[in-house]
Design goal:
Shape: globular
Strand order of the largest sheet: 1-2-3-4
Distance between the termini: 38 Å
Number of strands: 14
Oligomer: single chain
Order of helices and strands: EEHEHEHEEHEEHEHEHEHEHEE
Strand content: 15-25%
Structural class: alpha/beta
Number of helices: 9
Length: about 300
């Protein structure tokens, strides 16, 4: 397998910018709305009414419309389904090579919306940000197909956005994807049942810079001590946690949902402490939310990424 463009050519590519969860565009007499997050539905409804007032036929697409099927029903002419290459409207550098995921996490919309069997899209457009739900769970021959398309196109993979699944990430997967991956190695540590699988992945990535080992750590789905243990283990094993408070799939406001012994304030505090790398300077027990870091208020939400930072 060739190496595609040389390393110096990587700078010619970009990860682009995410539009913030609501993409809109017109083609002829039709206006399209692609709504990623349920808390963007109120704004989407306002935009749908505006386009209709201008005489457009309005089509709205999921995933938010899948969760809240009736929310826009009276304000659009067609509802649901995939809008062709809609991901490009959210970020011009993004693409998708497959749909679905067989894992079936209870807090994830993907299996409910796209199914627990993979749908392969072999003719996908090659772009630097790859948004497949579970790259390492794909049939290995298809993983090779994806990598070979990137190599043939001379396009580096700058962000495997949703990342890899610890249960299926092995040495063979690592060796294949390292030929094109120039961005972070992303995967999730969602609960303590995944502990041994995550630790095995971290061992495989031992030679990788910690900043490129970005582990999504869901918090709020387990008690406080269990969640903090997972954050601590990511750091201990040489990675960097990207902490995300649990939010209901159908939430109309982008606020965490406190469960177990959590509070909303504590969820936001842990996310801020972890995601701004304050663990380099202080333990969470000594964390003071009143100390500013130069990045806004505690629990700031990054609308482009759809993540708490």
């Amino acid at each position: 397998m060739g190496s595609g463009r040389s390393a110096r050519d990587v700078t010619a590519f970009t990860t682009g910018a995410w539009i913030g969860g609501l993409a809109e565009w017109t083609e002829g007499e039709t206006a399209y709305l692609s709504v990623s997050f349920t808390w963007k539905l109120t704004e989407a409804r306002d935009r749908a009414r505006w386009y209709r007032a201008l005489g457009y036929r309005v089509v709205a697409g999921r995933p938010a419309t899948f969760v809240r099927k009736k929310f826009l029903a009276d304000d659009v002419d067609e509802l649901g389904g995939e809008l062709p290459d809609a991901v490009r409207r959210h970020n011009p550098a993004a693409t998708v090579a497959s749909r679905g995921c067989p894992v079936g996490c209870w807090f994830c919309i993907v299996p409910k919306m796209e199914g627990r069997n993979f749908t392969l899209l072999p003719d996908f457009p090659v772009r630097p940000v790859l948004c497949d739900n579970n790259l390492s769970g794909l049939p290995f021959d298809y993983q090779r197909h994806i990598v070979e398309k990137y190599v043939a196109a001379g396009v580096p993979l700058l962000d495997a956005n949703s990342g890899f699944e610890p249960r299926t990430f092995d040495g063979r997967v690592f060796e294949l994807w390292r030929t094109i991956n120039r961005g972070p190695w992303r995967f999730a540590y969602d609960d303590l049942q995944e502990r041994e699988e995550v630790r095995a992945v971290m061992r495989m990535l031992a030679g990788v810079n910690p900043k490129r080992k970005r582990v999504y750590v869901l918090i709020g789905n387990e008690p406080f001590d269990a969640c903090m243990q997972r954050i601590a283990e990511v750091l201990e094993w040489g990675g960097e946690p990207h902490v995300q408070p649990f939010v209901k799939l159908n939430a109309l406001e982008r606020v965490p949902d406190p469960r177990h012994d959590w509070t909303e304030r504590r969820l936001l505090d842990v996310a801020r402490w972890a995601n701004r790398r304050l663990w380099k300077y202080t333990t969470f027990a000594e964390y003071d939310r009143s100390v500013r870091t130069g990045r806004g208020s505690a629990g700031e939400y990054d609308a482009q990424q759809g993540l708490f930072v």
